[in-house]
């Protein structure tokens, strides 16, 4: 079986959506003739930890780790946080009433750690990668980011070994929505843009999670761009009747995902209907939304802590309706969040907030999984909730009949496309 070296910062026990893409690829690549060899970090500083994901690592997958220096330990100490506290990926985004130490820390991160706070992994990652390549003899390198330091490790290894290299992007680089709040100097931004362009130029091919992000990157450098979606893992679903019509959000609710439109929509519902509804947020919520949640404390809103992925997907089957606010950004029309595929797998009607004529709206339509509304369209959201509530009332559960429409969005289907790209690059290199 041919081998591929996969370089990823996020790997179990890391939790959150970032690790799901690479885990699912690893699961299905052997079916397409490729054995994955993993290079990741030792004791990474993850925004969430999910020990149960380690159970999903196949026995045939060999995993190598190398150490790195994580500056977030200094950030915790500098800002008075507990050393064991998990920090969300958006911790350095601008917040209301933030301290001077936090502002200083954000400036240091933006201008001294380029392209990101994982740059301390560069040298040890390259050393470990050379050793792995000498031992395992992979035919190709696949690197997935963010963090984009991963791409710099892969670029150097590709230069030194001559192996073909696929640079994979789950999010944009310099246009990422969280980057807008980070105060980079003009010099730091030019350096960041130069690194981004060099990766896009030197990779043998570039993969992206959506056509929109592929187009965004394509405008910076010519290359062979491929869309490889995250993909979903089909679930064995069973009816799970509940007393309440549960509207469920899962994931990290960032400052760019304001849920107020949902709250306003529920306020408009008739009293007898609203009394049968509960709104549940599972995962981390942006601290700045505290006042918003307090203002709508009269609504049946619950907040639950982060759940391990397996537990989360079981809990999600008890939902009647899913709530998915797309992060508002300059590229939100073209992006597809990783959590989208867990939403699709649950096969529940999904109320999505975002931009019309977007890729997210297209996916909802093609999979018959729900409807997208503009941020602020509380009337449309209220009508959507009422429509599905009337269907839920019959049996007190909902499961969409759309398994056939979901087939092209499965991770197995997407890995087939990725494996074909691998074969093309290896054959081209051998000529």
Question: What is the secondary structure topology, with strand pairs?
Answer:
Elements: E1 2-8, H1 18-28, E2 34-41, E3 62-66, H2 72-79, H3 100-112, H4 122-136, E4 140-145, H5 149-161, E5 165-169, H6 186-202, E6 205-208, H7 211-218, E7 225-227, E8 245-250, H8 260-268, H9 271-274, E9 277-282, H10 290-295, E10 301-304, H11 309-316, E11 321-325, H12 340-346, E12 350-354, H13 359-367, E13 370-374, H14 378-395, H15 403-406, H16 411-430
Parallel strand pairs: 1-2, 1-4, 2-3, 4-5, 5-6, 6-7, 8-9, 8-11, 9-10, 11-12, 12-13
Structural notes for this entry:
Strand 4, helix 5 (149-161) and strand 5 form a beta-alpha-beta unit. A seven-stranded parallel β-sheet has the order 3-2-1-4-5-6-7, sandwiched between helices. Strands 10-9-8-11-12-13 form a six-stranded parallel β-sheet, sandwiched between helices. The protein is built from 16 helices and 13 strands. Helix 1 crosses helix 16 (411-430). 39% of the residues lie in helices and 16% in strands. The protein is globular. The chain folds into two domains: 2-231 and 410-430, 3-Layer(aba) Sandwich (Rossmann fold), CATH 3.40.50.2000; 245-407, Rossmann fold (3-Layer(aba) Sandwich), CATH 3.40.50. The longest helix has 20 residues, at 411-430. With 431 residues, the protein is an alpha/beta fold.
> Mind telling me the CATH class of the largest domain?
Alpha Beta
Strand runs, count? 13
Overall outline? globular
Multimeric status of the protein = single chain
User: What do we call the CATH homologous superfamily of the largest domain?
Assistant: Glycogen Phosphorylase B
Written as H for each helix and E for each strand, in order along the chain, the element string is EHEEHHHEHEHEHEEHHEHEHEHEHEHHH
């Amino acid at each position: 079986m041919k081998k591929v070296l996969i370089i990823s910062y996020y790997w179990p026990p890391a939790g959150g959506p970032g690790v799901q893409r690479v885990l699912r690829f690893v699961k299905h690549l052997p079916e397409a003739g490729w054995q994955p060899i993993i290079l990741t970090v030792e004791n990474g500083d993850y925004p969430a930890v999910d020990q149960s994901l380690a159970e999903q690592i196949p026995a045939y997958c060999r995993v190598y780790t190398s150490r790195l220096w994580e500056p977030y330990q200094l950030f915790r100490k500098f800002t008075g946080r507990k050393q064991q506290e998990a920090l969300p990926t958006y911790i350095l985004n601008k917040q209301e009433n933030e301290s001077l130490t936090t502002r200083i820390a954000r400036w240091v991160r933006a201008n001294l750690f380029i392209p990101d706070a994982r740059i301390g992994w560069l040298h040890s990652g390259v050393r470990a990668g050379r050793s792995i390549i000498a031992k395992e003899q992979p035919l190709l390198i696949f690197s997935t980011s963010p963090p984009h330091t991963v791409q710099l490790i892969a670029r150097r290894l590709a230069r030194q070994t001559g192996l073909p290299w696929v640079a994979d992007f789950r999010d944009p680089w310099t246009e990422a929505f969280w980057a807008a709040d980070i105060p980079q100097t003009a010099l730091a931004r030019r350096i960041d843009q130069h690194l981004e362009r060099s990766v896009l130029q030197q990779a043998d091919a570039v993969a992206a999670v959506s056509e929109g992000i592929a187009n965004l990157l394509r405008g910076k450098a010519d290359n062979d761009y491929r869309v490889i979606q995250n993909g979903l893992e089909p679930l064995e679903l069973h009816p799970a009747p509940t007393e309440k019509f549960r509207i469920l959000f899962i994931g990290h609710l960032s400052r760019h995902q304001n849920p107020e439109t949902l709250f306003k929509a529920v306020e408009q519902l008739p009293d007898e209907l609203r009394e049968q509804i509960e709104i549940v947020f599972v995962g981390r919520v942006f601290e700045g939304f505290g006042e918003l949640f307090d203002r709508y404390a009269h609504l049946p809103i619950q907040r639950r802590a982060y759940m391990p992925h397996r537990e989360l997907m079981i809990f999600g089957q008890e939902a009647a309706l899913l709530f998915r606010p797309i992060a508002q950004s300059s590229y939100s029309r073209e992006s597809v969040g990783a959590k989208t595929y867990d939403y699709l797998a649950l096969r529940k009607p999904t109320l999505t907030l975002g931009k019309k004529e977007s890729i997210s709206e297209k996916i909802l339509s093609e999979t018959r999984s729900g409807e997208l509304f503009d941020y602020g369209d509380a009337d449309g959201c209220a009508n959507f909730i009422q429509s599905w509530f009337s269907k839920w009332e019959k049996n007190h559960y909902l499961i969409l009949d759309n398994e056939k429409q979901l087939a092209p969005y499965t991770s197995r289907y997407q890995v087939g496309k990725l494996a074909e790209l691998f074969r093309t690059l290896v054959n081209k290199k051998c000529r």
